[in-house]
Amino acid sequence: LTLPPTFGSAYVGETFSCSLCANNELPEATDRRILAVEMTAEMQAPTQTIALDLTAAEGEDSKSELSVGSSLQRMVRFDLQSEGNHVLAVSVSYTETLGDGGDELKSRNRTFRKLYQFIAAPCLSVRTKVTEFSQQSQGNNKGSYAEPMSFALEAQLENMADGPITLEKVGFSPKHSFTTTSINWDVSWQDVQKMDYPFLMPRDVTQVAFLIKQSSGEQRSKAPIETTKDGRIILGQLAIRWRTAMGDQGFLTTGWLTTRKRP
After folding, report:
1. What is the SS3 assignment for 221?
2. Angle (CA) 249 255 256, round 5°
3. pLDDT digits (tens, 9 = 90+) for 204-245
4. Among 185, 226, 250, 256, which residue has the least CB neighbours within 10 Å?
């Protein structure tokens, strides 16, 4: 069972995938047989350990016996969601018998385990800024406003990877008490031609922006504003999708973006 000592860069938001092969490397002239080969794998991430589903390679059937020179192949995929050290732990178990008789006294169960370590680094750095548009208060009641609150959300996206990426989509998912409008390259206005997807070389930075507005009318009363324990207004989350030069897709969702409540 072999993986290279290093297998390139791995980035948060992308999918780690590889092929696991258990090979029967016994010499041709042997009376030993390898039976009942089983393979399992788990990913030891920084915050948890996850058992992985293994799928058979295309066109490969399950094998009761692994003959000399043949292999058992399985595919593994895992979405990288956290930065830091990851360990892919693979276990293989099988039964080894001597001769063709299958005598229980001449058979024994074997198991071995291998660990492959790599680091998941951030592909995108996201820096945000929220600005509230000033509103006129209604009457003399402090905190009573004639118009719903509205904000401008700006985000700087920096490519932290070693290679270029193309941003395919940047969206904002607001809380129920808000609506949002994108003012980025994906906007189609009557007199504005739709722009190409941003192409970012390593350490390139692009900026995106959204208008966020509190729901009005009856919807405003049905969807009260949600706040954190320290009283900050929860606006929503950014969702970013990109593709690498090799066509691999990545996806990242930020934590909840907040802003201070106005006095």
Report:
1. helix
2. 130
3. 999 999 999 988 766 666 667 888 988 899 999 999 999 998
4. 256
